[in-house]
Write the structure tokens for this entry.
Amino acid sequence: MELFNTAQASQGLNLKKISVKLGGKTVVDSVSIFVEKGEWLSIIGPNGSGKSSILRAVAGLVKATGGFTFEGENLKELPPRMRASIVSIVPQIPVVPPLVKVIDYVLLGRTPYLGRGFQPTNEDINLARSVLSDLDLISVSDRHVTEMSGGERQRVIIARALVQQPKILLLDEPTTALDLGHQQEVLELVDRQRRNLGITILSAFHDLTLASQYGTSMALLVEGRIADFGAPSKIITEETLKNIYGAHVSIQKEGSMISVIPKRQ
Amino acid sequence: MRWNKLTDQHLQEGGSPARLTGKLLTVASLILFVSALLSLVLGPVSIRPDQIFLEILDHFPGVTIDSGLSKVEAAIIWDVRLPRIVLGLLVGGLLAVAGASYQGIFRNPLADPYLLGVAAGAGLGATIAIASGATNGEGMFDALPIAAFIGSAVAVGITLLVGGAVGKSTSTVTLLLAGVAVASLFTAIQTYIQQRESATLRQVYSWILGRLSTSGWDEVIMILPYAVISVTIMLAMRGALDVLAVGEEEALSLGLRPERVRWMVIAAASLAAASAVAVSGLIAFVGIIVPHAVRMVVGASNRLVIPLSLFIGAAFLVLTDLLARTLQSPAELPIGVVTAFFGAPFFLFVLRRRSDGII
């Protein structure tokens, strides 16, 4: 499926025929995706369809074949440090070390920019503080990350990813552990940062309603292949959800907003 | 990119990152200095502190003062107490820093410096040296520390080779299991030798209990180069260890090459532990308890834990050695017994006070 022309291809994130094998099994099978700079592509698909693997391949965390370019630059050829200054990832289940303060945790995002001794400079610290204040976390910056509630903790992890000053932000199920209010809060915050800073976002979603409301475009992944691509309203239909998720739903549209309502048979 | 401009208010409220401040360093140095001083002044032969001070001042270049000490007393200071104190500082600092480093790499606060076969290797080396009679003579060249050091190096080397070809990425669990297997193998060989040469049992046993015995400055000079190299590497890696605290995959996503850091730190920490064990036997608990105590005070950042463990470990061992040689003076207790005797209850106390998943 050709989703883009070559003129576009130099402007955004361009994944060309990428494949990922895990333990001998192909989990991502020749997927091509293009995300224009500053846009937000939501990847949806049932469990095990390969959403996370695509994100991890873009971040360079799993071996993958195929082309990975951003603004004409080949991501695959970059050493980890350089790649980390372009791509940051909010993992689905982040490792939060005990007894580490919010400010220290967020400063980990500066790792790709630090010198040999990994000592953050005053500029790094100021940047971290400014992101913390943006995310309304400045008053808790001396507390331990492990002491925080789910919503606060997720904001801290996003703060770390933003302090990395990425051009591409990868979100792996960023709202799974959150209640509805915090889900919206976190996604609004990410979207605001995207608009302000022109960050390109690629995210994996379980929640179809949220995926359709926040992404600027959508890809449906089934068994490691792109089954559909385009506007959320085109992809999310009662029929598709029945065939692919085996789910019974009704879909409500309110302007450009889509809501997926599960229905008991 | 547009990032919000900071106001002064942010700068004040924004939390202070973990940094090795002058204040922390001063406190740690003071603790170290007082411990060393106490150790220098107290002993079976009592010597007045002011005389010791003058005696030391006398040895500074360009200073000549009569301390009033007899030749024997001066020799006790220079050839008995000082080398032993310096060796205690080195061994304590090495064990504590090696422990802190292993704990950082394995992300487990109960990892100790003997984890990957250092202890078993040194034990076998020492047993072979004792059984072959290479270590009995007075004034003779003592092969025991060298044999123990080589034993440690071989054991850790095998663990690293088996646990994953050096440089390649393997899980730390594989490495730990390899360490357990290598330790069993070496201990089995050691037991076999002891069975055949039962006359060596007592000597091997006394070595295992740990002892800071010095013959002048020989031991200090022997381990000093390894101490300097290994501590330098571990200090340089302390920031990287903080990144590694979020796991190898996230560390990679932050631009770190985790396997590189892992191998360098493991090599340095094992070298440090092997050097310490070679001259002091198996001193328990220092490598776990000191970094843990430091963490309780300053938090988990390795930027602080690694350098402060060096100071506090050194002070701790010198103080326990002071107890070991004065409690039943003129007889000496094995220092390993003293560290465990005071260390274990302290550890239990800590466990009870903070069972919130921190340790």
About this structure: Confidence is low (pLDDT under 50) at residues 1-6 of chain B. Chain B is about 70% helix and 0% strand. Residues 71-106 of chain B form the longest helix (36 residues).
